[in-house]
Structure formats: C-alpha cells, structure tokens
Amino acid sequence: MQQKINFSKAIPYLVAVVFFLILSYAYFPSLLEGKKLDQHDEKTYKGGAKELIDFRENTGEEALWTNSSFVGMPSYLISTAYKGNLLQYINKIVQVGPRPGSYLFILLLGGFLLMLSLKINPWLAVVGAIVIAFSSYNFIIILAGHNTKVVAIAYAAPVLAGIFLSFRGKKLLGAAITGLFLSLQILAGHPQITYYLLIIVLIYGISELYFAIVDKTIKDLFVSVGMLAVIVVFAVMSNYSKLATTMEYGDYSMRNKSELTDDSGDQTGGLPISYATQWSYGIDETMTLLIPGFRGGSNNVELSENSKTYEALSKLDKNFAKQFIEHVNFYWGKQIITSGPVYVGAIVVFLFVLGLFLVDKRYKWWILGAAVLGIMLSWGKNFLPLTEFFMNYVPGYNKFRTVSMTLVIPQIVMPILAMLALKKAIFDDIPKQKLFKALKWSAGITGGLALLFVLMPSMSGNFSSDNDVRMVQSISGSNMQVQQLLMDSLIPALEEDRSTMVRNDAFRSLLFILLSAGLIYLYRIRKIKMSQYMVIGLFGVLFLADMWPVNKRFLNEDNFVSKSVAKQPFTPSVADNAILNSKGLNNRVLNLTVSPFMDASTSYFHQSIGGYHGAKMGRYQDLINTLLPDEMNMFIHAVQSQDIQMLDSTLVNLNVLNMLNTRYIIVNPNSAPMVNTFAMGNAWFTEEIVVVANADEEIDQLAQIDIRKQTSVDQRFNSYIKDKKFSPDSSAFISLVEYEPNKLTYKYNSSSEQLAVFSEIFYDKGWQAYIDDVKSEHFRVNYILRGMFIPEGDHTIIFEFKPKTYYTGEKISYASSVVLILLMLGAIFFDWKNRKKELVAS
Questions:
Q1: Is the pTM of this model over 0.85?
Q2: Helix count (H) and strand count (E) of the chain?
Q3: pLDDT per position as a tens digit, 522-563
Q4: Fewer CB within a 10 Å sphere, N or C end of the chain?
Q5: DSSP readout, 324-368?
Q6: 28-51 b/e with 16+ CB inside 10 Å = b?
C-alpha cells in the first residue's frame, strides 16, 4: 500500500528556515541598506591578500606565494582558493545573502540541526538554535573580522548532530550529515576550532564507550564508529589540499619550535607558552558566562553622559569628554585587551544547572566534563599546571595561541544540556516534587550568585586595571598637572562606573533567571493555562531579550560603513604614493609610522618588511625577536640625531634590513620616504662563505659579517658548497627583470662561477630554480635567504613556485569529494528506503 507524503510535517522546518533568514537580517538592518561591516581583521586580510587577489583576478590562477608580507611567505593561510573540494558549492548555497547576515543564518541553521538530533521538538529546536547562535562570542568575532572562525563554529554544531544521530540509531543519516558538515567545517579554514570540536567528540566518545560496555552494546557502537570513520576519512580527504599544504608549512612557521636555543623553559614543541597564553581568561572572569559586564565588557565601551566618568572628564573639558566617552577602556580583567566577554546567557546557565538535576546521566556528565575542561583551559597562564600539561603532552595543542578561545567548548555544549533540561521541564512527565526541587536548587545557585553581586558588587574585585594609569598618561601626555587631576578624579569615577555595571548586569541576569524559573513553575502547576507551544514561544522571547541587547553592545549599526569605504580599506599616504610612482621591482618598504609587524596597511600597497599574520615564517619571526628591533632602534636614533653622517654610517651597518632589500623607509606618512641607498638589491654576488654550526651561530654571525662580501651558510648545506671555487668579478651583474609573486626572472653575466645571494625567503617546499630552463639547486644562506652557484656566462635564472603538495592535493581533494558526495547520497537513499519499509510494516 503506497504511503502518502504528509507535507504538514515539513511546516515547522520550512518556517524555521524562513524565520532564521528574517532574524539574521533583522539583527543587521544596515545590510538591507547596502552597507558593509567595518571589520578590523577583514581590513588586515585585504592588506595581506591584495597581491594574491589581484593576481587571481588578472590571471585566473593561484599565486600560492606573496611577497607583500614579511619579505615573502606561502599564501595558504592568507588567501588561497582550494577548488578541489566540490562541497564548496554547497557552502556558497547555504550562506545566503551578504555577510555577516549569512554567518548568523548558518549559526542558526547549524544550531537547529543540533537540537533536532537530540530528539527535541522542532519548535523548541528553533529556540535552541537562537541560544547557540546568539552567544556573545559569535558577534564579537564577527565584528573583529574572524570570519573563518565564526563559520567553523557554525558548522561544528551540525557535525555533532550527525555524530549524535549515528549513535542513536540513525547510522546512515548521521554519517551523511557528519560527512557533509565536517567537510565544510574543515573547509572554513580554522584548525583551532576543528581541534576544539575534536576534544568535544573525544569526550563524548569516551562516554558512549562506557555506556556501551555497561549496556553490552559494543558491537552496535563499533558499527556506528566504523561507518563514521569511513565517511570522516573522505570528509578529511576532500580537504586534503588545504590540510596538506597547511601541515607542510606548519613545520616552517612560527607555530613550530624555533631552532634557536631557549633556556627560559618557555618552549614547547610548538609555540612558547608565554606567547600562546597572552590571552588567558581570568579565573574569576569566568563569571561573564552568567553576568556579561562582570569585567567591564570591552576596551571600548560607550558610556552615557550620566556616568561618573563623563562627569569627571567634563570638569576638565566638556568637548573632550564627549570624544573620549565613546572609547573608554572599561575592561578591567586580566587579558591584554578584549572586544567583549563570552556570555552564553543567564537563562542558559540556569537551565544548564537545571540539567544537572534533570537530564539523564548519559548526556549530563560528558557535557559537564567538556564544559569544565574548556573553562579551565581558557584560564591559560592563570592555571599553568593544566596549561603546561596540555602544551607539552597533548598532541597539537601547542600549535595554537589565544587559549581563551577554548571557551568555544562550553559555548557549544552548555546549550545542549540547557535545552535538554527545558525539553524535560516542558514535555516530559517529571514528578512535580522532583522538578520543583531541581528548580529551587538551580535558581538558588545561579540566582544566588547574581544576587550576591547585586548586593555586594565589590565581591568581584577592586574595579581597577593596570591599563588605567596608561590610559591617563595617554590622555594627559606630558602635562603632569592634568595627569594628577585625572588620577584623582577619573580613575575613581571609572571604578564607580564599573561597580555600577557589575550591579546592573547581575540584576538583569537575576531577573532573567527568575522569569525563566517562574515560567516553568507556573506552567507545571497550571496556575496559568498555557500550551506547550506558548511556553516555547515565551522562552524564545526571553532568550532574545536576554542576549540580543548584550550583543548590540559590541556589534550594532555604528559598526557599518558605506560600500565605497569598505571597498578601499586603506588610503595611500604621500609616502605611499611616492613609492608607488618610483621605479624598480620588488623594492621593499619598512613603515615606522605603524607597528611594522602588526600592521597590514603597508602590505596593501608595497612589498613590506612587516605585515600582519599569526603564523609567519618561523625563521623570520626569529629575526623579529632578535636582530630587527635593534636595527630599527639604531635607525630611529640616527634619524633623531639629524646628523647625516651618522645616518649614513648607521644605514650601511644595518645588515638584516639591507639584505632584505629595504629600499624605502617611511618615517612620516605626509612626506616622501627615506631612500636607503645601501639596500643590497634583489640579488648580489658574494666573495666569501662563512660556515656556521647551527642556528644560534648563524644569527650571531648575521650581525657581525660584512654582508656585502660575506655570506653565512649552515653546515648542513655543506654538500652544496663543497669543492666550490669562485672569485670576484667586478664586471659581473645580476638583476631582476620580471616579477610575479610566484615567478621571478633574473638576468646575469659573469666571467667566472659565482655564488649569488637572492633577497628572497628560502622555502624549499615549492620553490624551484632554473638556469636557462635547466633545473638547478639552491640552498639557504644568511639564515633565511636563498643562495645559488651560477656558472660563468650570460644566463637567465627563473625561480618558480609550484608546490607539488597543492597541485597533487587538489586532485586528491576532487576525487575524495566526489566519493564523499556519492557516499552521502547513498546513505540518504538507504536511510529513506529503511524508513519506507518501517512505514509499510507499521
């Protein structure tokens, strides 16, 4: 007997999708006006990626290497199109509309799928999606421009959904969903979030293994794991090109251990502990999960004119107060700076605790364990024993910085337990006595904490920050009288405003906890006649009322600009235009008017000595940590002396900057740059080789040798220099005649064999050298550059970047994505057939 399709069952799902679209653009109404979000990291991305994007648009090809940042580095973690994974087209379809509305949409959609996988009613799943999507961290990273991170977080939820389905009897459908969204999650390109997702999955897997042993269902567990393993392999392999190139570069990047000796005890097999833990959440700062303003919110908080801070500033200068009040350093936690707290919602925290009383142990203990681990890891340097253990012994953990990001783990898992608790409270027939006891304890714990800070906000601390004095100094400048006035008036006012924020936010959290607990209580005692769906709707309103205004503190209409402004992230200065109008190929620029190694604006226009990237070449980072700051300080001192002779004698001795061909130095954006006539050029011939034993000796020698005549070579490259004889030739020349980011063409002439040094970063995983189309060997010299012996005569040298890992990887990704798509379609088909059989049998 043929079964009719019941289209009415699809209504909640269709309504959910439409609602998510409306909600996404209701939060970002400026998008409907054609405006763009002004994102800091999006600007830096455009700065670092400008050369790559231009090359792609002009040629239709991938450069895979850029010389615009840090003298040169692969583009894999900057801007590379990985076209092999065919699931990228699904990604484009799912991300409907302009960003960041599309980001909020996939956060909602992913959260919805996660809730459905837990067998939560579709209408309640819509509310659960709001909970997951509207966590404050999502909006803070959107504003910052951490686009890959927010997409990776969005796709983490449906990956978990697929795994949950697989372990709950929907093996085929679960495998298909896992394969699809894991492929998209990796494609997003944020390995750190993928790593944290893996931690969640491992904790959940250990829990399932325990229960499988207890319930004697090991065989069924292994079937689920086996099916997932097959599809996970192809999901990973569909991103083979992205993963393989990233891993290959990882060995050369600053995320790997430096070869320089470090006796500080700070080193691990990856990043130094001090660097990785610069952004560590304070232990008491964890209260922001419940009370958003517990540590002042962010560095830039706009206070009202009724605030004590405004009042204190107005006494000095009312006009100045109006300007300053919009950018108060209101944060007083232990992080260096922050754009806002991780606030999962007061209602979520309350329901999470309620879940510990009501939800089945199969869920609550692994969720609690994952949440606690994520919180404790976020403490970083404030809880060093755990951090050091993970940095030293847990594979891969030491490759990532900003440990506070582990709060993504509780951000994902706490809503799961919260919504399971709400499901039980609304839909399950729990004895009233048990429910009311659980409500009393959970509301008492969370509401009691909030009430404590309403009554005694001073319990949160003294409301002072080390940054306060620096802020006062920056405002007052060298005027000591103004500085003392501010110390006496501004700081106490600021501390009072912080105290007020803690009290007010604690009160709002208490209010939402009481409203939520009261709503459940009234519904269950039937004092007010409400259907289940009315309760769900009211909780949806409560969640939005709680989280929407908090998010608007950090991301609102003020953060949007016109399309024309967004399209041109940087405006060239007088100095920039002077360099752009000059002649020469690949002449490099040092911009001292910005923080050279934390700024991408120079890279937007020029080949920069600096740039902005968290995974720059490791050996280049070594120079930044050792020789480059000293040379820049020497130059600045010489400029300040206004002594031309001293300036020339200083410039000639800047070995590192000169060998990097630093032709232009910007000291004033509103005037022409300083031209460094001592820069070594794109390539030169050396007269003597200085063999060094290791990295330490090579960096030491780099500061001592005559860079014009001598070249240091690590002894591991002895096979390249053994038995080589070369002599100076005053008439020899070598010059760069054609430039593309991935192809450099030189012409040279010499009457004898020469050792040429090229002012280009050595990276042997892709760069190939050819002399008159004949492949030739090159090796590393001067710690980071390329060296090559070239024969006598008149010849052409070509360096070309053609990494096999990328091109082979793209083929593997393409084939794997095809297999993955077939596996997913097959899984969906057989799941549909099985369902059809079950319907007929019933």
A1: yes
A2: 33, 19
A3: 998 876 788 899 999 999 999 999 999 999 999 999 889 888
A4: N
A5: HGGGB----SSSS--S------HHHHHHHHHHHHHS-HHHHHHHH
A6: bebbeeebbbbbebbbbbbbbbbb
